[in-house]
Amino acid sequence: MRLIIPVSVVEFGGTGQGVLLLHGLMSRAAAWWPVAQWLRPFGRVVAVDQRGHGRNPQRGPFRTEDFVRDAAAAIEDLDLGPAVVIGHSMGGLHAWCLAATRPDLVRAIVVEDFAPDNRGRTVDEWKWLFDAWPVPFQSVAHVTSFFGDPVFAEYFEEREDGWHLIASLDDLYEIAAEWGTRAYWDLIDEVRCPSLVIEAGRGGQLPGQMVEAARRSRGQYLYVPEAGHVVHASAPWVYRGAVEAFLSTSISPV
Questions:
Q1: Which contiguous run of DSSP H or E holds residue 39?
Q2: Left if phi > 0, otherwise alpha if psi is -120 to 50, otherwise beta: which for 14?
Q3: DSSP 183
Q4: To 10 degrees, what angle do helices 90-101 and 64-77 make?
Q5: β-sheet bridge partners, residue 136
Q6: pLDDT for 11-42, tens place per residue?
Q7: Would the pTM count as exceeding 0.90?
Q8: 109-118 in b/e burial notation, b at 16+ Cβ within 10 A?
Q9: Which UniProt keywords apply (predicted)?
Q10: What does the alpha-carbon distance between residue 156 and residue 139 come to, in Å, rounded to a whole number?
């Protein structure tokens, strides 16, 4: 079994059953801090930097299966299982796939704003946005002003010439490129644990897919019309209420 590297793990506190948080593309474990504060009554809350992100030194390969194996190893090595797995965007995809392939490790999942079938879409549709960033940013305030949300400050670090994204853009493009080549319906059909699927009204996902994924996995579904892609940051009280209600009925708080 591969031991999880301590520098890429954030222990947020709590005791009992494991709650594993999986961030989205470009993000990092520490960005879950606001959510982790109210999750602690439900167990021991842990987030990990996924490969290619944060302080995790592991780069490629970047297949979905590699990320899922990493998440499984985190649950096993940190003695979290069976865990509640909560994922945003890319992390939501990994939560679905982990629940499908390692049901012994997963008690319940929350998937936030990821469409399971992006075949035909390419990174060129949004890569130009990243290329237009005024890198390096001059300060944390510059980062938050540019993106319009303080959560983005967590994704950057200060270097000699200013503030840079911690993750490598080339790595991010490689990770996302896979999503345009495959669909994940077969794995979603295999999910048997309780699940909650949360879709952002302003998140840009392909319409109808997330509600269909919830139906196929026999899960709950919530559409948040006012929310941007990071629902837990743009509509935090709606997100919190939905997740707390789901966990309260799906698992027992400790």
A1: helix 33-39
A2: left
A3: B
A4: 70
A5: none
A6: 999 999 999 999 999 999 999 999 999 999 99
A7: yes
A8: bbbbbbbbbb
A9: Hydrolase
A10: 10
